[in-house]
Amino acid sequence: MNALNVSKALSDHYPDVVIRQLGLENCQDTIVGDVMHRGVSGGERKRVTTGEMEFGTKTVVLMDEISTGLDSAATFDIINMQRSVATKLNKTVVIALLQPAPEVFDLFDDVLILNEGEVMYHGPREEADSYFASMGFVRPPGRDVADFLLDLGTKQQRQYERALPVGMNAFPREAREFATIFRQSRIFHDMLRRLEEPLDRELLGRKGEDMDSVPEFQQTFWNSTMTLMHRQAMLTIREKEFLISRAVMITLMGLLNASTFWDVDPTNAQVMLGVLFQCILFLAVGQTSLIPMFMAARDVFYKQRGANFYKTSAYVLSCSVAQLPLAIGESLVFGTLIYWLCGFVSSAENFIIFMILLMMTNLAFAAWFFFITAISPDIHISKPIAMMSIVYFILFAGFVVTKDQVPDYFIWLYWLDPISWCLRALAVNQYRSSAFDVCVYDGIDYCLQFDMNAGEYYMSLFDIPSDKFWIVCGAGFMVGAYVVFMMLSVLVLEYKRYEGPENVTLTKKTIEDADNYVTLETPKTEVNQMIFPNRSTVLDVSEKEKNFVPVTLAFQDLRYSVKSPSNPNESLDLLKGISGFALPGSITALMGSSGAGKTTLMDVIAGRKTEGTINGKILLNGYEATDLAIRRST
C-alpha cells in the first residue's frame, strides 16, 4: 500500500519536479512559439523538449547531445536530475555529450568512447584515465579528463604521448588500433564476464510477466482521447487572433451576401440555388485556413506518436471533436444571416434542417483538408491539392454544370461530390416545404401546365430529384464522408510519415572528382610541427590600405518590452537598460544563461524586432544608427 501511495504521489507531482529540475519555472506559462509567434528562448525550448520526453514510466532514457545551446549550469542541472532519476527509480540512462565540463563528466558512472565507429573504451568513468595511462598517454595537470579522452585517436594525442609501455612497439594512432587493444584489456573481459553470468532463476521465470506488464501506451484510448481533447481545446482558445478574425470574416461575409441577395424571389430558381451553392462553398473553402494549423500540429504528432504518447486514432478523434464548436458557431452565424435575410421558407423545421446540413458540410470539409495535410509532405503541396479539390467540388456540384450535362464517363464524380449532395438536400428542403409543395403558386397552376407541383418544377430546371428522402441521403452522405476522411487520416498518419527530407539523393564522389577539384581540402599543420627549410626567403609584405571604415558599435540604456501573454494590459521587460560597446579589430563575447536575453539583444541591435517597444540609443561611430545604416553595417 505504501508503494502504491509513493507511486501515485510521484506521478502527481512529477510535472512540477521536471519543471523545477529543468529550470523552467519562469516560462512554464509561456507558449513555446515558432517563426510567427514569440515564445521561449532557444535553450528553454530544448529543455521543454527534454521535459516533454521525461513523462511516462519509461525504463530506458536515451538523450542525444542535450547540452547543445545550453549553458554549463543548465547542462549540469539536467544531467544531475537524470542521475537522481536513474538512482532512485532504477532507470537506465544513456546520454551522448560533446566535450562535457569536468563537473558534468563526474556525474557519470560509465563511459563509452566512440571514434570512427569503433569502441575505444567502455567501462567505469574513474578508471578511464588510468587505462589510457597504462598505454603511455598521460593527462597533463589541469587538463580536463573529458577533453583528454576526446583528443585520443586524433592528431592531438601526440601531446600526451610519454614513455612507451613494455610490450608495445608503437603508440596506437587510429580508432581501430585502440579498439583492438581494448578488446584485449582486463576491463573488457570483466565486462564480458558480468554479462555472461547466469541470471537469477526467479527473475528468468518472471521475465515474461514483467515484460507483458509494460503497456505500449501509458493511458487507455479514452483517457488519452480526453487528454488530447483538453489540449486541443486549450490550443484553440489560445488562438485568439485566429478566432476573432474568423468571427469577423464570417459575420461580414454573411451580412454582405445577405444584403446582396436580400429577400430573393423564390420563383427565380437560378438565384435561389445560387445562394445555396455560394453558402455551401463559402463554408467549405473557409476550412482551408485550418491547413497551416493542421500541418504545424502534425510535426508535434510525429514526435509524440513516435514516443508512444497516444494512439493515432485518439489524436485524430480529438482533432475532429475540437472542430465541433467552430463548425457550430460558423454555421449558426453565417447560416442564420443567409436563411432569414435572403427569404428562405419561414419554417422552424426547415431552418433546423438547413443548419444541420451546413454543420455537417463544415465538418466534412474540415476532415477533408485534415486528410490532405496527412498525405502531403509539406504545406507547399497540401495547398495546391486543396485548391484542385475545390475546383473539382465546384465543377461537379450540379450547379455550374447540371447533372444531365455531365458526360456519362464523369457522372461518378458527380455522385462523389459532397457539395452536390448538400446542395441537393438543401434544394429539396426549400422547394419541398409546405409553401412550395402546392400546384398553384404566385398565380400559376404548375400541375396543370407542367404536370408537377411548384417545388418539383423549380428543381427540375437543374435536374435535381424532388423526393424528400434525398434530405436524409444528403445528411447521411456528409456523415459518411466525415467518418471516411477521418479513418483515412488515421491510416495515413499511422503508416506514412514525412519525418525526413524528400527527394534527396546523395551521390558518392568519384576519385576523378576529388582529383579535379584542386581546392578540395586545405591541409592543416600544427604550429609546433611546422618545419622550415634552411633555404627560406622572408618577404616583407606591406600592410594594404583599408578600403572600409571601421565601425564602433555602442548601445546605451537599451530597453525592450512586449505585452504580457497572460495580461495584454501589462508589459514584460526583456531588456532593462543594457549599455555596452564593441570595438573594431576585437571580438566581444555575449554571455549569459539560457533565457537571459542574448538573442533578444542582438535582434534589437540588428533591427530584427517587428513588435514590442524599443527605447535607448544604438550608436555607430558615435552617430545614432538609422534603419538603413543598421542594414548596411550588420
UniProtKB/TrEMBL annotation:
Domain ABC transporter family G: 99-152
Membrane-spanning intervals of the chain: 243-262, 274-294, 315-339, 351-372, 384-402, 469-493
All copies of domain ABC transporter, residue ranges: 577-627
Zinc as UniProt keyword: no
MF GO annotations: ABC-type transporter activity; ATP binding; ATP hydrolysis activity
UniProt xrefs under Pfam families: ABC2_membrane, ABC2_membrane_7, ABC_tran
GO cellular component: membrane
Lineage: Eukaryota, Sar, Stramenopiles, Oomycota, Peronosporomycetes
Subcellular location: Membrane
Membrane topology, as annotated: Multi-pass membrane protein
Organism whose genome encodes this protein: Phytophthora nicotianae
Name the record gives this protein: ABC transporter domain-containing protein
SUPFAM superfamilies reported in the protein's UniProt record: P-loop containing nucleoside triphosphate hydrolases
Keywords from the UniProt entry: Membrane, Transmembrane, Transmembrane helix, Transport
InterPro entries, per the entry: ABC2_TM, ABC_transporter-like_ATP-bd, ABCG_dom, P-loop_NTPase
